[in-house]
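Appendix B. One record, verbatim.
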Amino acid sequence: MIPEKFIKESVVNYCTVIGVDPLLVQGAGGNVSWKDGGTLWIKASGAWLSDATQNDIFVPVDLVHLQQSVLSGNFSVLPKLRAESNLRPSIETLLHALMPHPVVIHLHAIEVLAHLVRHGVELTLSSVLGTKVRWTNVGYFKPGEELASAVWTALLTTPDADVVFLQSHGIVIGGEDIDAVNGILRTLTDAFKTVQRPVFNFPQPTSNINLDHGKSYVPVRDLSVHQLAVDMPLFNRLASDWALYPDHVVFLGAKARMFESIGDLKKICQKAINCPELAFVRGIGVFVLPEFSIGKYAQLRCYYDVLSRQDEGAMLNSLSEDQIADLLDWDAEKYRMHVAK
């Protein structure tokens, strides 16, 4: 048996590596866990994997309690902490308890997520993967109780699965150790790798948009993100394909605020209370208010990375109004937003 101390060190070090790769982890998104006997160590809600060596971002929960609850059909079970902590376990703790593997990661890896938001993804998974990995697949479900129940059902059918694909969400990977998990992750990202859409040349915005009541919009720092406003096929997708996966909705809201001109944006913002935090101005660029957080920047770049990997004719699965409302009204997500950077 691998010593728990060694597992912890390998997990923490691995988190700092993947946590700074935006194609694998975006801000506070994703979570990692390891099992130590009857204890499940899971990343805290709102914590960043990239901070794993600097901060204590993992909390211990009672694994046996979670497993027994699942066997009795209770998927709304709340994790029991095995030590005092000011942190809350990840919203998706139960996903990690369901997987029998010693080490489990749940990520929104861009190369895979770009496929998971498309119509017909089931056929894609079969044709691309074949027997490269042992996997199963579930449709979109609200994170938490609904998703855990769906994953449990899928694992009953495919008990040897090392990978669970979550449509319009992400991937869960289990393995004996970090090397095994990382090997599967690299297999998936290589198998699903997609060429990004060519960059559209444009005069990048450099000036703030100053409003009459003292507020100012600033151009986003990431020049690639401006493609969402200046590349018309991408801009047009903002209206129809905005809410593609949970973290995007939680951090960036239910819909994109699109404007035909800077003048139109200023008109909406005649009262400070009406100013959207994030604005897309057709043909000009993407602008944010100064309080736009780094966590939201990470999700905005994630959205561009997913959208720029779609063919123009690709049909995407956007979340419904009811699914969006469920996410935004969820106390667990409100807490995660509160503690996130």
